[in-house]
Write a structure and sequence with these properties.
Elements: H1 2-14, H2 28-41, E1 45-46, E2 50-51, H3 56-63, E3 115-119, E4 124-129, H4 140-154, E5 161-165, E6 170-172, H5 177-181, H6 185-190, H7 193-197, E7 207-211, E8 214-216, H8 218-225, E9 228-232, E10 236-238, H9 252-260, H10 262-271, E11 274-276, H11 277-282, E12 288-290, H12 295-307, H13 311-326, H14 329-342, H15 347-358
Amino acid sequence: ACTWLGVILLRVVCLPHPRSCNMETMSGRALRRLHVVGAHLGVHESPLLGSYRDTKEDREEHMQPILCSSTILCTSCCSSTSRSIPPPSSSSSSSSSSSTSPQLPSLESFKFETILVEVLPSKVGVITLNRPKQLNALCLQLTRELRDALMTMDHDPRVHAIVLTGSDKSFAAGADIKEMEEQDLVRWRSHNLLDEIDVIMRIKKPIIAAVRGIAFGGGCEVAMLCDVVIAGENAKFSQPEVKIGTMPGAGGSQRLTRALGKSRAMELILTGNVMDAKEAERRGLVSRVVPTDKVLPESIALATQIASLSLPVVIQCKSLVNISYETHLSQGHAREREVFLDAWTLQDRREGMAAFKDKRKPQWTHS
């Protein structure tokens, strides 16, 4: 009786309607409320909650903030595109009921063929698209490998910021048209590279796009999905899909319009014309333009600066800017106030203010 009373209370307190309860798409905030209230009521298994183990590891797993396009704190909705996580180690402690945290795959466990990955001592992860003969055209294999590398770096404690780059001549020339042309609609709907590209939206840690050469079609869309874009003087941006009888599919029509305004974005998308680096900088599509041979060093330097700061604070700052980009001012302002107050409990907040008062360099614990 107590269990079902708890379920009824959970339905009223945590959810607007039981039929709208979807554990796969529920925001982390709602999920946290659901689990916390459930734990207080002693409801750990029910038709509503499913199987819920009240362990420290499980709470951390459910509350891990992963940025996605629809919410700030979201876990389950982001798991469908990530590499499967191996089960916890079979070695267990004595009679303790707490389980071992799942072990995520390491970068070293992957055998990438279309990208290069490196983790620098400065806590910067560098991903280089590596299909030089195809000018880094985005094929399904490349986007899957990019997904795996990004998701792994996002959980790798050695990485606090990520740089994504291509070659001197091409950041990415767009989707691999030969591969796309061979797929019919049914196959494309069930298995396509657009879903893999969308993973970039769910990465918590900052991503800097170091763009040299062409960023056309999907390449331009990938660059716009990143948090900061540093462009070389030879960089060129375009959404030329209309020239081959199609249109942008990975957010190009939406993000380009937000960056450039309706009129200029409309002109570029309806004609497939090219925009050079200087105009991209002037209109705010890129952060700055540097000499082509300085793009990667400048991007790594910026990533290093970001990586030297408190990781949880950086992650929340990124999420707030994305809210401003995707929602209304009042919603963003309300969320900023929440996050600001939540940050008061951080050890790094206390350390940062103490260091400022003592006129010394803060020693971040990233907690």
